[in-house]
Amino acid sequence: MAVSSKFRRRLVLGLGLLLFACTEGPRSGNSLSETQPRAKDLFTTHCSSCHGAAGDLGVSGAKNLQKSKLKLQEIKQIIREGKNGMPSFDGIIEKENQLDSIAQYAKKMQH
Ligand code: HEC
Predict the structure, then answer these.
(1) What b/e sequence results for 75-95 when a residue is b if at least 16 CB atoms lie within 10 Å of its CB, and e otherwise?
(2) Highest mean pLDDT: which of 7-21, 37-51, 60-74?
(3) Of the residues 29, 48, 65, 70, which has the fewest C-beta atoms closer than 10 A?
């Protein structure tokens, strides 16, 4: 009993450290490592409240992104300008590379 609970505590501590090591990885770096992993975060922050994590939630009339046929440029334009129930993200997603990666992320949901 005593041994196993001690072991369990050590395991939990070990896992915690491992998790910490993973999330605290190098942040700076080249543009690839900066844009690609962030696309998901950006989508979660700005889009998934209506579209859902998989793009098919459809809150307040949000189009199903899996069924969308839009081209990358058209997606970018909608994000920038908004459309009907979808707000414009002009001034919210300010960096061009963020707009690019979020649009690519939405594009990848299509099938
Ligand atoms: C407040 C809810 C809301 C948020 C937040 C939102 N959308 Fe939308 N989105 C909508 C609605 C509503 C539509 C349907 C617009 C229309 O055509 O009438 C839409 C349509 C779209 C379309 C067009 C799909 C098609 O085939 O016509 C794309 C692409 C899209 N959204 C991407 C995004 C992305 C990327 C984000 C995050 C930057 C986002 N949306 C955030 C509500 C939202």
Answers:
(1) bbebbeeeeeebeebeeebee
(2) 60-74
(3) 29
Minimum CA distance residue for ligand 1 atom 26: 68
Q: Is residue 109 lining ligand 1, measured as CB closer than 6 Å?
A: no
Is the C-beta atom of 57 inside 6 A of ligand 1?
Answer: no
Between CA 57 and CA 44 the distance in angstroms is: 13
Report how far residue 97's alpha carbon sits from residue 35's, in angstroms, rounded to the nearest whole number: 7
Q: What is the chain's alpha carbon radius of gyration, rounded to the nearest angstrom?
A: 19
The tens digit of pLDDT for each residue in 88-100 reads 999 999 899 999 9
Residue length of the chain: 111
Q: Rounded to an integer, what distance in angstroms lies between the CA atom of residue 26 and that of residue 21? A: 10
Write out the two tokens for 20. Answer: 């910490």
